[in-house]
Amino acid sequence: MMRYYGVSKEGLWGNSWWESGAIMTALADISSLDSSYNGTYFSTYSTTFNKAPTNDSHPGFINSFYDDEGWWANAWVAVYDLTKNPEYLNMAISIYDDINTGVDTPCGGLYWAKGKKYIASIANELHITLAASLANRVGSDQKQNYADAATAGWEWFFKSGLVDADWLVVDGMNNDTCEPTGAKRSYNQGVILSAATELYKATGNSSYLELAGNIANATTALNSTITDANGLIKECDGGCDTQGSMFKGALFRGLHQLQLADPHDNWKSFITTNAKALWNNALNVTNGQCNTGSDFRGPMTSVNEVTQGAALDVLVAAWAVTS
After folding, report:
1. Who contacts 181 (Cβ-Cβ below 8 Å, separation ≥6)?
2. What 3-state DSSP class applies to 286?
3. One GO biological process from the UniProt record (predicted)?
4. Exposed/middle/buried for residue 268 (C-beta within 10 Å: 0-12, 13-18, 19+)
């Protein structure tokens, strides 16, 4: 994965913007499991912090899309947890302040983008996760404002219809009708699980874990929208574009966080089954370089920074829940 870092733009993986934030999160996650990785990548975080915004013309990691900003802000929280460098937490707070200006839709919740034409589930999930994460990391004099924002966002999310009757999250909401719409993608099922674990830490209220558990069960059930008859994620069957190849990474990150907070055998099995499938069917080593494809069920497909990043997420998840 690191062979793609800084090749096209200093501070980023390939030409990927928000995906680089997700990849950096996975890198921080693996470092949190094995401290021998820490020193290796601290300079990577610093370079990304200082160079990525300039090289992709997004000062302060701010652009026109609230979900992009959410990926980066949550990434800086993960890097802060690892490094304890307050600059990274302050960056997450700065991005949060910009995101918060978009919580003004006629339907409730956060807009997807500053053009105010769509309400995306992912933007709201990232915002809830971020608010709860900040509540768990700022001083006691600041905690309540973030906790209140997170709980308000969560309550709206579950009342809005974005979580369907089958306990799967749909893509978003029509800005004119306030009706839920769109496909049910893996990252929408995963990020809300991350939100639940952070909200549980912030409040001690186990109902967040219980609701998240319903989504986790629906997502990992055999022959569900997301999972096939063998317990393997179906996304990217036939290939994905660069963004779509990253989606499943967020599912495995959120699910492993939920598993650590509220262990269930079926979630652990889903994670390890998919990690084994990736290892056996969509991974090879060529000229000393490890390559991973986008469909964990195989066959091996084209490789890029995003397929590598999503693969790291599932392998880290398996490591975390079995160690």
Report:
1. 170, 171, 172, 173, 174
2. strand
3. carbohydrate metabolic process
4. middle
Place of tokens 């809830």: 128
| Segment 160-196, tens digit of pLDDT | 999 999 999 999 999 999 999 999 999 999 999 999 9
Distance CA 183, CA 180 (A): 10
Provide the residue count of the chain: 323
Q: Beta 283-286 vs 289-292: how paired, if at all?
A: antiparallel
User: Residue 169 pairs with which residues in a beta bridge?
Assistant: 163
Residue 277 has what pLDDT?
96
- Detail the DSSP E strand segments found in the chain: 118-120, 172-174, 180-181, 283-286, 289-292
Q: Which two tokens stand for residue 260?
A: 């650590």
Q: Answer whether residue 115 shows pLDDT above 80.
A: yes
CA 235 to chain centroid = 16
Taking alpha carbons only, the member of 241, 250, 233 closest to residue 312 is 250
> Using CA atoms in the order 301, 16, 20, 89, what is the torsion angle rounded to 10 degrees?
-160
Peptide linkage before 180 cis (omega within 30 of 0): no
Beta strands 180-181; 283-286: pairing state: unpaired
Q: How far is CA 185 from CA 39, 40, 225, in A?
A: 35, 33, 9
